[in-house]
Queue: 2 jobs
Job 1
Amino acid sequence: MQFNLEAILDTFAAMPAWEITAVIFGIAYVLLAAKESLWAWFFAFFGTLIYTILFWDGALLSSALLNFYYMIMALYGFILWRGGKLSSEELAITSWSLSKNITVIILGTIISVVVGYLSATYTPAKFAYLDGFVMIFSVIATWMLAHKVLENWLFWIVIDAAAVVLDWKSGYHATIVLFAFYTILALYGHISWRKAFNENRS
């Protein structure tokens, strides 16, 4: 499929106001998360609330359920970042060992293959394996972000890049631009958290 700038601009122009709002909230969420701001979860909650309603109304049930999960994680992340109900201490950035990251990647890949197989076999889903990979690792990376695991940003770089490929194949031109931007923001988030992590250790 050829890259069509005019189609991208036309798609953005045709986006309803609520969808544009959700996109803006999504970008704000990533930027604020990179800065470890509690406001990130406010934008995450309401952005995903909008997407949940839009996807449910459009009969995209899997996407609606995934965004509903994001809503729950926004509340969970807010509580964790505040230090829990009984403490005002800020949650610190942590880093997983290489072996733990590899274990998570292997388990996530196995689950992604199973989900992809089930989707490809029992549903009319297109690009089922790539779609399953994006969904499963998005769930994992969101949990990691809520717990301030440094490597979540590396996961998101790969996930967002895979989403760009998926949207390219699926013909969602505007979303290609959005996830390409998310990939850059994830790199920024990793650099920012890495700096804060190193400063806390010194």
Job 2
Amino acid sequence: MIPAIAFGTSGLRGPAEGFTPARIKAYTEAFLLGVAGDGPQRLFVGSDLRQSSPEIVSQVISTAQGCGWTVAYAGAVPTPALASFAMAENAPAIMVTGSHIPETHNGLKFYRRDGELRKEDEAPMWAHAERLLEAAAVEAREGILSETDPAIARAYVARYLDTFGVDALAGLRVGVDQHSAVGRDLLVEILERLGANCFPYNRAETFVAVDTEALDVAQLELAREQIQTNELDAVVSTDGDGDRPLVLDETGTQINGDVLGALTARHLGIRTVVTPLSSTSAIEQSGWFDKVVRTRIGSPYVVAAMDDAAPAPVAGFEANGGFLLGSDIVLPGGRLTRLPTRDAVLPILAVLQASARDLRPLSSFVSELPPRVMKADRVREVSAEEADLFLEAMQNDAAAQEEFDARLVGPVGIDTMDGVRMTLTDGTIVHFRQSGNAPEMRCYVETGSIDETEKLLSDIIRSLKAYFADKG
């Protein structure tokens, strides 16, 4: 049986073998004919470095050309590079990537002419594609892999070189964990051309899934070794498709994505911040912003909320650190145009520039936020049905709460905007939700200290594993 594919928090995802030629053709046609919008029939396509990506790309290109569209293939480039170039050209785009999920999976991210696919676009697309498949109206063509157009990658590099200013990062020593991140070489180039002394390491020849919200111990230890050996000011990286950043400070401590987002927004002079429920409450407590708008988890919800947010300038970010620029802003080198999709390079450059400008270590900026620490982890292979039953129990059943973990009994507040977010009597936050991208139960814990957060998160993950093992 062919595995299912489905829309998640950001795009169409599923096991790689689920992206059959017929399905790729059906969903590509549904996007181009129903969602892409009016304008020149030119499509931009890019991909990450997964083994399954080239074949999926070839089917997307073949389908688009069969529909009469001209296709520009960017090759392996970061998702924000593809999106920003396509938006500037008033053209739609399709990125073939599974982002941070396992190499055995893949996905399609769709971009309208004005930016990310919206949640309201997904149901009509799905219905259109499924009608084609059910009617056997899809006849897959032979895949085509076009010649790579280097202009997309070069424009992404220029976006930051032209706006951050000469020597913006002068004096900094920065390690770059390259692994299999699609923008690994572009990131090194940008950092070096802005004046940083770079130390690339850990380059992988095969795809490695890196979740910037749940780094493994070996990856952290390797980064800390690099910091000590090379006397680094920071270690930076991204996830597989370059839209989620990773930043470790000079002590080897990871700067959580939502903290990174808040620091970036302050550095850029943002007045209105849009961020999901999973971001730390220190954002409101800091008093740095005129307004903070909360959403469900997933960049499409952030993008939609940014449309009506005010006062400007407006930006959004997620707990994974992906930064969405909703307004044009002026930087020392020039005007940085809005890019309302997740980007990893902007937050990396913003905090490094602040460090270089003020001659201060990154850790000193983090300490300026109120002491709230949020961390996340997940339990894999949890079906949607199992997750729904668990979430219902955590929301409504005091006995189930106590049996799972007595500390969760009697919450002072429960928010069900996205999963079950419990606020406990001491201000601790425990948030459970099923991932929209993979069969995983995610847990987010926020307390007043790193030790408390890590201890509670570890306890809850252990309980989750036992809970779902018993149910299995």
